[in-house]
Amino acid sequence: MYDLSEGAPEDSMSKTILVVDDDANVRTILTDYLSEQGFRVVSAVNGQQALFVARDEKPDLILLDIMMPEMNGYEFIRVFSKEKEAPMILLTGQSDRADRVVGLELGADDYVTKPFDLRELLARIRAVLRRAETSAPPPLSHPDERPSREEETKKVDPLAPDRIPEEKTLDLVEGQRGVSFEKLFLPYVKGAKSIKICDPYIRLRYQIYNLMNFCKTLTPPEDGVKLDLVTACDTFQENELRDKLGELKNGLARDHINFDYVFDSNLHDRWIETNTGWRIILGRGLDIFQKPDDKFTLGFVDQTKRKCKATRITYTRW
To answer: How many domains does the chain contain in total?
Structure first.
């Protein structure tokens, strides 16, 4: 039973709280109650929707259910914590001790069990917010201390093209924007003299354009960079594909990219490998973006304006 009794709200907060729960009744109760306490409340029905809401609304705290369809609470924490920082309180079942432990280990700040007392939840929210404010960096004492716009962008953009490459796993969610091949690959291919791409689906025109867009991330030296493609094709389309890839080879040679290819009918894995020791494992190969709405939208020429397909990319040393 959710106890709604409460005294007058504190004159405190004007903070934004994101409620993430697939139970409409829980969302309604929390939205009504927390709004009465002076909070601004936004909500989402699952982790995937919560990512979009959080990016737009920048909540001060997140109340997060664990078991939800499409993207559960664990997945949300893993993805969101790579992009932003906001304290989280888990909403869990009474018997979900293991869920609570995993959630706390992933980075959640506290938890309450369902059915919860709203006054207790309110106390926990205020306590977590106080801790977050205490641990926040001190305010700038002079405007000259403010970081430059470039420095601020580096801190908030986990996909900055000039970031230091590191071993990690990146989950792109369906509909995500702001992504490009430059952001995904440049830190890992920069300085490479030899690159190998394995992707069985470089066959159709748009897939070849994907490969060309990858090549745009390269800055070959005068003596060139070697780019080898391993792909697959059906027998009936082999001659046509050889013609297209032959044209691509001639075009890339003008920009000091020494391109070659082979067909492997048994190929299934999709990855990029560099002679500098990086392997990028691609869940969907280079087919990362949804089709633009039409050729007169900015997404047709700017990848960051296009929506992504859901996929996972893993950067590892080999």
So the answer is: 2
**One domain for residues 178 and 66:** no
Indicate the DSSP class of residue 240. H
Q: What is the pLDDT of residues 262-317, one digit of tens each?
A: 999 898 889 999 999 999 999 999 999 998 877 788 878 899 989 999 889 999 98
Q: How far apart are the first and last CA of the chain?
A: 54
d(CA 178, CA 242): 34
Distance (Å, whole) CA 133 – CA 60: 10
Domain assignment present for residue 2? The answer is no
Question: Is residue 123 a part of any domain in this protein?
Answer: yes
Query: In this structure, what token pair is assigned to residue 278?
Result: 């990086």
Domain span including residue 279: 155-317
Residue 41 identity (one-letter amino acid): V
- Put simply, whether the predicted model's pTM sits higher than 0.85 gets the answer no
Residue 246's contacts (CB-CB under 8 Å, 6 or more residues apart) are none
- Torsion (CA) 119, 120, 122, 127 in degrees, nearest 10: 140
Please, what is the angle between helix 73-80 and helix 47-57, to 10°?
40
**Residues 305 and 167 placed together within one structural domain of the fold:** yes
